[in-house]
């Protein structure tokens, strides 16, 4: 389990099905992240079962309400072929957009990735039309690497570019150190 000021990131549980389905059926949520909107509760239940069987995806729980408001995880990066790199993926209920939850969650996940898992690099990708995801990555300190043209196929069959970002281990610690110095200049 990981914790930030307002969020808890923990493995998904069966009791999360209604919250998960609530945001997974929202057409504003899935397609920008590359997956189709969930049509039925049963479809959400099957995918939730996959999350629970694996160890890559965390439920993003708002502390104040106890509600699952999204998910995030570290996955194999099929574009990088070494074990010291993982790709971050994330999604947030549209009801919680604009509150700074995803940058906060990503900060917690990066601490876990670099401090606990000792990763060398964390990558992230988004489609050109997903400007919200771009803002999240930029706020978190990821570096824009470039564009892989005609790289991904959307659920409707359209072929689109991937905008590529990454953060190296030393960059994470430099950002962390700079933030600590801002909070307490005597460090």
Task: Describe this entry's structure for a reader.
The chain is of the alpha+beta class and 187 residues long. Helices cover 35% and strands 30% of the residues. The chain has six helices and eight strands, in the order ββαααβββαβαββα. The protein has helices at 17-24, 30-33, 41-53, 101-116, 131-140, 169-183; strands at 2-3, 7-11, 57-62, 68-75, 85-92, 121-126, 143-153, 159-168. The chain has an eight-stranded mixed beta sheet, with helices on both faces. The longest helix is centred in the middle third of the chain and has 16 residues, at 101-116.
Tell me the layout of helices and strands:
Blueprint: E1 2-3, E2 7-11, H1 17-24, H2 30-33, H3 41-53, E3 57-62, E4 68-75, E5 85-92, H4 101-116, E6 121-126, H5 131-140, E7 143-153, E8 159-168, H6 169-183
Parallel strand pairs: 5-6
Antiparallel strand pairs: 1-2, 2-3, 3-4, 4-5, 6-8, 7-8
Helix pairs in contact: 1-3, 4-5
């Amino acid at each position: 389990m990981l914790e930030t000021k307002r969020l808890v990131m923990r493995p998904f549980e069966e009791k999360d099905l209604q919250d998960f389905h609530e945001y997974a059926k929202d057409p504003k949520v899935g397609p920008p992240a590359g997956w189709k909107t969930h049509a039925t509760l049963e479809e959400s239940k099957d995918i939730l079962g996959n999350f629970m069987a694996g160890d890559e995806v965390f439920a993003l729980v708002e502390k104040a309400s106890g509600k699952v408001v999204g998910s995030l995880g570290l996955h194999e990066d099929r574009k990088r072929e070494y074990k010291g790199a993982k790709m971050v993926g994330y999604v947030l209920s549209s009801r919680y957009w604009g509150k700074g939850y995803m940058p906060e969650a990503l900060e917690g996940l990066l601490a876990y990735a670099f401090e606990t898992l000792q990763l060398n690099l964390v990558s992230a990708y988004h489609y050109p039309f997903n400007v919200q995801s771009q803002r999240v990555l930029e706020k978190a300190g990821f570096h824009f690497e470039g564009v892989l043209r005609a790289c991904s196929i959307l659920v409707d069959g359209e072929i689109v570019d991937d905008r590529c970002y990454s953060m190296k281990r030393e960059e994470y610690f430099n950002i962390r150190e700079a933030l600590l110095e801002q909070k307490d200049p005597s460090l």
